[in-house]
Amino acid sequence: MSMIWVCGVDEAGRGPLVGAVVAGAVVLDPNNPIEGLKDSKKLTAARREYLYEQIMEKAKAWGIGEASPLEIDQMNILQATMLAMRRAVEDLTTRLGDWPSRALIDGNRCPELPIAAEAIIQGDAKEPAISAASILAKVTRDRQMQALHERHPEYGFAQHRGYPTQAHFAALKQYGACSEHRRSFSPVRRVLEALAD
Q1: Does the pLDDT value for residue 197 go beyond 80?
Q2: In the chain, where are the structural domains located?
């Protein structure tokens, strides 16, 4: 009798103007519960880091997938998000040793997967496995933004994480776009067009 494993899937980084969109997938272990899982946006950065380590240690399996800025520009953010989610589930599958029985996806649509999948709006607040996936995705992406900040400190990525803030717009105007900026996003495109004129 094979076990029924349900994986939660969520993403981080749909809204920013820079960097990859990152997805997490997690199968929790009912015999090794993790206290305090909730939507990553409602947790402090320190709490997310702590829970990230707990998930890595205690989850039955986890996976991370991403789609690059280039892929986002080529296909659009929605399709790239679906791709990142599929890659996260594939990554989880290599660690689990098999496909999970089904996937619970945060949001209103599911990536193409060879297993049953259900989209749950605000799933990160309702399903602990989706909460865990949201924490993995958010911490991974925040670490990527920190690394990008160290390469390009002039943009202030450590502060705004690549989101469209006044400070980010000002830096874009002053310095143009870096290689990690999503050129298909209108604020970036507008700046590049203005600089080309």
Answers
A1: no
A2: 6-150, 153-196
